[in-house]
C-alpha cells in the first residue's frame, strides 16, 4: 500500500472540506479522485502533499506516517512529486534547466543530472525542445515539461491536480494517452484529480467519487458504473434512469425484479431483500427491437446525439422517464415498445 488515509478531516471555518475521508491506494495504481467543483479534491491532494495540515485522522505514505495527531511532515520530507494545473514552470529557464533544477538543488553529481535529465526528456519526447523557454511551447508541451520534472525527481508517488484542464479537447486526449504511458514507464503511484468523468474512466485503475468532502465510493471504473452504491453515484456517473421495482426473488447476486408488471433478472448487492427497491437502468439496458418488447411507453422528448437519438420515454407508474437510444428520429407523443434486459438494484 503506497498511500493510506484514515478518517481524515479538514475544516475551513465551519465547512468540512474533508469529512472523514478514508482511502487506500495500492503501489503502482493510477488512482483518480473525481467530483464536482468544491467537493474537496484539491484539499485532499494538498493534505497528502503536506501543503495543508489536517485537523484529525492520519496519512501514511509508503508505510510511514506523515500526518496525524501532533505530526505534520513538511512537503519536502514526503518524497511526492506534484503537478499542478498551472504547470508552475520557471519562465526564465530552458526546458532542460527546468527539468534539471530539482536534481541540482538536491546536490546530485553533474554527470548524473545530465544523464537523468536527458532520459526524462526522452521519455516525454521533448528532446528536440530542450533548449526552448516555456513561453515558446504549446500548452501540451509545457505540461510534458512539468511531467518530466516530476519524473526526474524520482518520486514514486505523483500527485496531479487537474493537469489537463487548460488543454483543448484534441490535445487533452493526446495527453491522456501520454499520461497513461508516463505512468506505465515510471512505475509510480499516481493520484490524479479531475472533475471530468470521461477522463477519470479513461485513465483510472480506481476512482474515488467525492461529494461535499466525503468519498461516496472508491472502486474500479466498471464498479462505479455498473454497481453504484447510491443514487448520487448512479446519477453522477454516466446516464441513467432510476425506476421503482419489486424484488420478487433473490439468488446470490441476481434478483428477479418486477418492473411495470414485467419480470427481469438483474444483478443486485448480496444482502438484497424481497420487496420494493430502486433500480438503475442505463440506455444500453433498454431494447427497442426483438420479440419481447412488452413494455408500452410514450415518447416525451428526443435529442440527437450524433449517429443516434436519445429518447426520454414514459413508463406507466414510474416517476422518471426512461432513457432509450433509438436509431431513428421519433416525435413526442409517439408510442414505443421497449424491453429492459439489465440494470442494477441500488443498495437499500
Ligand atoms: N484556504 C481555504 N480557506 C477557506 N476555504 C477553503 C480553502 N481552500 C478550500 N476551501 C473550501 O473548501 C472546499 C473544498 O475546496 P477544494 O479546493 O478542495 O475543492 P475542489 O474539489 O478541488 O474544487 P475545484 O474542482 O473547483 O478546484 C470549498 O468549499 C472551498 O471553498
Could you explain how this protein is built, in words?
The radius of gyration is 24 Å and the shape is elongated. The model has no long low-confidence stretch (mean pLDDT 90). The chain has 2 domains: 223 residues, P-loop containing nucleotide triphosphate hydrolases (Rossmann fold), CATH 3.40.50.300; 106 residues, Nucleic acid-binding proteins (OB fold (Dihydrolipoamide Acetyltransferase, E2P)). Strands 7-8-9-3-10-11 form a 6-stranded mixed sheet, with helices on both faces. Strands 2-1-4-5-6 form a 5-stranded antiparallel sheet, covered by helices on one side. The protein has a 5-stranded antiparallel sheet with strand order 14-13-12-15-21. It is of the alpha+beta class. The longest helix is centred in the middle third of the chain and has 18 residues. It is 24% helix and 37% strand.
CATH class division of the largest domain: Alpha Beta
Bound molecules: adenosine-5'-triphosphate
Sheet with the most strands: spatial strand order: 7-8-9-3-10-11
Distance between the termini: 31 Å
- Helical segment tally? 8
Q: Tell me which CATH architecture of the largest domain applies here.
A: 3-Layer(aba) Sandwich
Helix- and strand-based class? alpha+beta
Low-confidence stretches: none
- Helical residues, percent: 10-25%
* Secondary-structure element pattern, one letter each: EEEHEEEEHHHEHEHEEHHEEEEEEEEEE
Tell me, briefly, the overall form.
elongated
Could you state the CATH homologous superfamily of the largest domain?
P-loop containing nucleotide triphosphate hydrolases
Q: What fraction of the residues are assigned to beta strands by DSSP?
A: 35-45%
What number is the mean pLDDT?
A: 90
CATH topology of the largest domain: Rossmann fold
The tally of beta strands, per DSSP, is 21
Summarize the main sheet: 6 strands, mixed
Keywords: ATP-binding, Cell membrane, Membrane, Nucleotide-binding, Translocase, Transport
Protein name: ABC transporter ATP-binding protein
Family: Belongs to the ABC transporter superfamily.
GO molecular function: ATP binding
Amino acid at each position: 500500500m503506497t498511500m493510506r488515509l484514515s478518517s481524515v478531516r479538514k475544516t475551513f471555518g465551519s465547512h468540512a472540506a474533508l469529512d472523514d475521508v478514508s482511502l487506500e491506494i495500492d503501489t503502482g495504481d493510477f488512482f483518480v479522485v473525481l467530483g464536482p467543483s468544491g467537493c474537496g479534491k484539491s484539499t485532499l491532494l494538498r493534505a497528502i502533499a503536506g501543503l495543508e495540515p489536517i485537523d484529525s485522522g492520519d496519512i501514511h505514505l509508503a508505510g510511514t506516517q506523515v500526518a496525524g495527531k501532533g505530526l505534520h511532515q513538511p512537503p519536502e520530507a514526503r518524497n511526492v512529486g506534484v503537478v499542478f494545473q498551472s504547470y508552475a514552470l520557471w519562465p526564465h529557464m530552458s526546458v532542460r534547466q527546468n527539468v534539471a533544477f530539482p536534481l541540482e538543488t538536491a546536490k546530485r553529481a553533474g554527470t548524473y543530472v545530465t544523464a537523468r535529465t536527458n532520459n526524462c526528456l526522452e521519455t516525454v519526447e521533448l528532446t528536440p525542445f530542450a533548449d526552448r523557454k516555456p513561453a515558446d511551447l504549446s500548452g501540451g508541451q509545457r505540461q510534458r515539461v512539468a511531467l518530466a520534472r516530476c519524473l526526474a525527481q524520482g518520486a514514486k508517488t505523483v500527485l496531479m491536480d487537474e493537469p489537463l484542464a487548460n488543454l483543448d479537447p484534441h490535445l487533452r486526449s493526446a495527453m491522456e494517452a501520454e499520461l497513461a504511458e508516463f505512468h506505465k514507464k515510471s512505475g509510480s503511484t499516481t493520484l490524479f484529480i479531475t472533475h471530468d468523468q470521461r477522463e477519470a474512466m479513461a485513465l483510472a485503475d480506481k476512482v474515488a467519487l467525492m461529494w461535499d468532502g466525503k468519498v461516496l465510493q472508491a472502486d474500479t471504473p466498471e464498479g462505479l458504473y455498473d454497481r453504484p452504491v447510491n443514487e448520487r453515484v448512479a446519477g453522477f456517473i454516466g446516464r441513467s434512469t432510476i425506476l421503482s421495482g419489486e424484488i420478487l426473488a433473490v439468488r446470490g447476486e441476481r434478483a428477479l425484479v418486477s418492473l411495470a408488471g414485467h419480470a427481469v433478472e438483474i444483478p443486485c448487492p448480496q444482502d438484497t431483500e424481497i420487496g420494493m427497491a430502486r433500480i438503475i437502468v442505463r440506455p444500453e439496458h433498454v431494447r427497442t427491437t426483438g420479440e419481447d418488447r412488452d413494455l408500452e411507453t410514450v415518447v416525451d422528448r428526443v435529442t440527437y446525439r450524433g449517429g443516434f437519438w436519445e429518447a426520454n420515454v414514459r413508463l406507466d407508474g414510474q416517476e422518471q422517464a426512461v432513457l432509450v437510444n433509438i436509431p431513428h428520429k421519433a416525435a413526442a407523443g409517439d408510442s414505443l415498445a421497449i424491453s429492459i434486459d439489465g440494470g442494477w438494484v441500488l443498495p437499500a
